Amino acid sequence: ETGVTQTPRHLVMGMTNKKSLKCEQHLGHNAMYWYKQSAKKPLELMFVYSLEERVENNSVPSRFSPECPNSSHLFLHLHTLQPEDSALYLCASSHRMTVGGEQYFGPGTRLTVT
Amino acid sequence: GIQVEQSPPDLILQEGANSTLRCNFSDSVNNLQWFHQNPWGQLINLFYIPSGTKQNGRLSATTVATERYSLLYISSSQTTDSGVYFCAGGYGGATNKLIFGTGTLLAVQP
Q1: Which are the contacts of A19, defined by CB distance < 8 A and separation ≥ 6?
Q2: Residue B83 CB: number of other CB atoms within 10 A?
Q3: Which site among A56, B20, B52, B61 is 20 to 30 Å from A18 CA-CA?
């Protein structure tokens, strides 16, 4: 599936580093999402952007800062992370709809915080 | 919020066997998807099926919206079917938030 791409695919960072995850969708969608998948836990929604406006933030710590400059790109800026933030971070996109809206996922960034 | 329960949590099959995976929802949903997560973490869309029945090759899915459950059928399983199967549901709307189940880990042995 090349409709949603994510870079980097793997990232190792120290707790004092600052890094950014990038997501790009080529499906003509206008809503984008960040999900977190920790070991032995279900995927959790972190942020939703619809028409470039953040519409959902599930009480995510401020050390995660999203940015959606346009409907095709989504970033997740990371700073002063904790080891428990190590996880697979997945980006998704969909059409913004009043009902339904199939989501398509990127390949994910596997993040390790040391 | 919606609670999503998947069963069974683990399943081991011999190649060629059939299986049924189940997903129960605590509330009605407007968006229901089945995914297969491969060993590299990629979530592959299998079905978008808020209601009704769909088939794609050896896979098919049925959602009975009024009874808040969905079933994924895998027939003539192959080793490449191994991985984790997730269902996810949501209300759609402005946030289109998906709530994921904990998944079914499927291992197909040759």
Answers
A1: A11, A13, A77, A78
A2: 20
A3: A56
Contacts of B34 in chain A (CB under 8 A): none
Disruptive mutation site among B4, B35, B43, B56 for chain A (greatest number of A CBs within 10 Å): B43
- Token pair 């428990």 is found at A84
Query: What are the pLDDT digits (tens) for B5-37?
Result: 999 999 999 999 999 999 999 998 888 999 999
Collect all residues of chain B within an 8 Å Cβ-Cβ radius of residue A100: 30-31, 48, 50, 92, 96
Indicate the burial class of A63 (C-beta count within 10 angstroms; 0-12, 13-18, 19 or more): middle
**Two structure tokens written together for A96:** 């913004």
